[in-house]
Design brief:
By secondary structure, this protein is an alpha+beta fold. It is 36% helix and 15% strand. Helix 2 runs antiparallel to helix 9 and helix 3 runs parallel beside helix 9. The structure holds pyridoxal-5'-phosphate.
């Protein structure tokens, strides 16, 4: 029989793990323990606070080293990186992009920003990310091919791309997804917003698909207040993404000439300064976060509460630790008890397919997404020394 853990025991355990007997414990607080102030001050003194500056270049070089990608374009946030990625993948107005219903709203919003519509396909219960089986079933049963393109049998709109997300830093079954996508000649964009420092075998998430994107929002493993990045190994995409995100301005010593509708999506130097200082500490953050996760794993071992571990063959950054409760009643009681006692916990997102703006989008049965939606809760996951 499994060991029964009460909510009070969980609260006590978390307070102990964070060495915080009384005060509020957030879900994920940033940690500024390196060169943050020095680099930000330097940037102010240089007066190069906007989108051109040495720290932007340095940030992009650091991201190349970390991910192994050939091209990195720093953006103002993860949502704009995703929007840019969709445009670069050739997604057009009134086309379809296959994604998860179980994701943060930005994934679906970026598709809408590109003028396209999401199609919600189910996730796997272990990875909480897009299911290769569900993707295959959708493409086989719900689309048809014409002139080498795939169209929805429901809307007759073209399926233009596939957009999986690495939930809470746990890598999705990206290799299987790409194998299926290749059979249908569809580009894959990885929403790796949550998975900086997560690997499949030894390859960094975000480098499997045609394009990958990251977020450096305040709640992420590494933050620069607001920031994002698009990564790719495709030279044409890399060069064009930089051009289009810089208002599509042709390089010239003084003339303003823009050769298409561009975007003001580049990360300011001020944010990049913070990002560089944070990236310098990435390995330390990952180590500290893993140490916390190991404590959680030990605590929940053989108990009535399942702790979500990294999928076999992958290395997760454990951005947000997650547990799976047995039903929605247990989940609600857990959320009430923990939040009522100053320990911040959050349920996984409401499915995108239930939000007013996306409720009429095409979807499959979303069986696992709904099952997880009722059970998954995130626990405090901040880096601590
Ligand atoms: C899965 C996912 N996609 C996209 C984003 C968007 O990133 P940002 O908030 O930097 O726009 C986030 C996080 O915020 C996210 O968690």
């Amino acid at each position: 029989m499994s060991r029964l853990i009460t909510n009070t025991e969980v609260i006590d355990f978390i307070r102990n793990a964070f060495n915080e007997p009384k005060e509020f414990i957030p879900l994920h607080a940033p940690h500024f323990g390196g060169n943050e102030k020095k680099y930000v001050l330097e940037t102010i003194e240089s007066t190069f606070v906007s989108s051109v500056g040495a720290y932007v270049t340095r940030f992009e070089e650091m991201m190349k080293d970390i991910t192994g990608a050939k091209y990195v374009i720093a953006t103002v946030n993860g949502t704009t990186a995703l929007h840019l990625a969709l445009i670069m993948a050739g997604v057009q107005r009134d086309e379809l992009v296959i994604t998860q219903s179980l994701t943060f709203v930005a994934t679906a919003n970026a598709i809408a920003h590109a003028g396209a519509e999401p199609v919600f396909v189910d996730v796997d219960r272990d990875t909480m990310g897009l299911s290769p089986e569900a993707l295959k079933t959708y493409l086989e049963n719900s689309t048809y091919q014409k002139d080498g393109q795939n169209y929805s049998k429901v809307s007759h709109k073209r399926v233009a791309a596939i957009l999986p997300m690495h939930t809470f830093g746990h890598p999705v079954r990206i290799e299987s997804l790409i194998e299926i996508a290749d059979q249908y000649n569809l580009p894959v964009i990885e929403d790796a917003a949550e998975s900086l420092g997560s690997y499949v075998e030894n390859q960094h998430t975000g480098t499997f698909g045609k394009i990958g994107t990251f977020s450096f929002n305040g709640n992420k493993t590494v933050t620069c207040g607001g920031g994002g990045a698009l990564i790719t190994n495709d030279e044409a995409i890399g060069l064009r993404a930089k051009h289009v995100s810089t208002t599509a301005k042709k390089a010239h010593p003084y003339l303003f000439f823009h050769d298409e509708v561009g975007y003001n999506y580049r990360m300011p130097n001020l944010n990049a300064a913070l990002a560089c200082a944070q990236l310098e500490q990435l390995q330390e953050f990952l180590k500290g976060k893993r140490a916390l996760t190991e404590k959680y794993i030990e605590f929940f071992k053989d108990s009535n509460i399942e702790f979500k571990t990294e999928p076999v063959g992958t290395k997760s950054n454990y951005w947000l630790n997650a547990i799976q409760l047995n039903n929605i009643q247990e989940r609600d009681a857990f959320l009430k008890d923990t939040n009522g006692n100053g320990v911040m916990t959050r349920p996984i997102w409401t499915l995108m397919s239930k939000l007013p703006m996306y409720q009429n989008c095409e979807k499959d049965n979303l069986e696992n997404s709904e099952w997880l939606e009722e059970r998954i809760v995130n626990l405090p996951s901040s880096y601590t020394k």
